[in-house]
Each structure stands twice: as C-alpha cells, then as structure tokens.
Amino acid sequence: MKNIFRHLLCGSLAVLGLFSLNVQADPYPNKPIKLVVPYTPGGGTDILARMLGRDLSKALGVSILIDNKPGADGIIGTDIVVRSPPDGYTLLIDGTSQAFNVAFGKKLPYLSSRDLEPVAQTAIQQVLLVVNAGLPIHSIKDLIVYAKANPGKLSYGSSSNANTLPMELLKMSTGMDMVHIPYRGSGPMLTDLLGGQVQLAMSGAAAPLPHVRAGKLRVLGIGDSVRSPSLPEFPTIAEAGVPGFETIQWSGIYAPKGTPKPIVDKLNAEIVKILKTPEFKKQLADAGFDDVTGPNTPEAWRKLVADEVTKWSKIVNEAKLKPQ
Q: What is the value of pTM for the model shown?
C-alpha cells in the first residue's frame, strides 16, 4: 500500500511539475493582441493607436493588430471589447467619448465604469478650432463677425459628441448660428472640410495638423486653458476672444472587466515606459499630442474618466443639450 501511495504521489508531483513548466513557458502575451479603435482610420485615436502599437509590439514581443470598428460615437467598438474574453488579447483605445456619451445620457449596451478595466492613459490631445483656409476668417473675432453677418450659412463638421459638445458651447457662448453636419469619422469629415463642403470644425489636433502645416486649414485657437507645449504658436480660444472656454481630449487603453490584475499591471508598466521615452515624446509632440501629466496608474485613469463624466454632465444639463 505504501508503495502504491508513493507511486501515486510521485506521479502527481510529476504532473504538477509539467503543468508548472508549461505555465512558466507560456507567459502573457504569447499571441497577437487586438487593439480596437472605435473610429475610422485617419483620426487622432487611430493615429495614436498605430504609433503606440508599433512600440508596444516591440516591448511585448507579439504583434499588435489595429482593428478599426467605427460607428455610433465609439459605442460599437467599445461594445465589442466589453463582450470579449478578459484575457488581455483584446484591448480598446478610446478617450473623451467614454465620458461624453455618458454625460449626454445616451442609451448604452454597457456601462463603461462597470464593464471596462482601465489600463493606462496614453496622451492628451489638443482640440483645434480650424477653418478652411479659403475663408476670409483669420481669428475667432473674424469668425464671430462673419457668422453673425451670415446666420445659418456656415456649417461645421464633427465626428463625435466629443467634438460636437465643445462646438455647441462655443456657439452658445458667442451667439453664433451655424449648421451641424455629423460624420462617422474624422477622415470623412476632414475630406469635406478640405473640399469646402463644411467650413469649420473643432477636432483633436492629430488629424487636421498635417493640413494646417500644408496651409489648407487655418487654426483659430486651441481648446486648452493654456497654450500647448507642443503647439505654442496657437492661442487658446479663451485668449482669442471667448473667456472661460476650455476643452481638451484625452485617450487611454482599456481591457474587458475581469482581466487579471497581473496582465493589467504588465500592460500599464510597458505603456508608461514607452510614453516616457524621448523618441515617443517627440512622436507625440510632432503629431499634436501632449504628454500625460501626474500619476499614470489604472486607478488614476479611472478617476480621470469619472471626473470628466461629472464635469460634462453638469454642462450638458445646464445647456440642455441633446446627443447628436
């Protein structure tokens, strides 16, 4: 009997040893990771995803597959991630819309604060108020005068509520009367802006900035309360004629709720390490992004989103705005 027990024990230990070796030889990640971008290619979030994806792929030793799933102001792509296995192989990159959709009271098939696991903030993106360079408008004061002299003749494009709400606040703050033209993504909106089908837009800097530098679009101001370190040549909208106006965009990485903490912590550590490298900082600045300031932990990222929901919910209620 003792011999039988000894053989069984040895056999069990051998199996456990093999299992342990397999676990050690098969750490996360061991296959490609899908990074869902809930917008069309060419927008700021997509640009940032591809920049970060290249470096994160090198850091983790696996491919990062960018998967554009546009529609419904980021809701379609977000819902795909929410419904994915919480194993670290499907991630979401998104930002301001996660707060704006809640602030607007949109009916969502998920609750971001409950169904997503914050991983890390990735960047701050300045919001640019841009006009087609063919217009005789060179400042916000010019815009206000022109819009009031031509009520309802100017149209602005937007690809999400994150751009619509700031523009509607600008309209209310100045008494301008403009027509809103919604788009499914920044790419199509910029195409029409460049072609003159719409005359202006408020957009995250990354997408319109190359066209600004090419002289096809003109920046009237940025939404931040202070001038941007990456774009110091542009005045804030507040200093250019609309006191108190402030809006920025931010973005970050999420995983499905229930993703194991060691995986979330590993992703956070690698992303934060990339964000701190001089090379990536330069890439961010060249694309119109500013660095993340302050702690960049999953907890800090969760708090930022919650604070933004509170802030914009109050603005939406006071302005009696409805989702587009």
A: 0.80
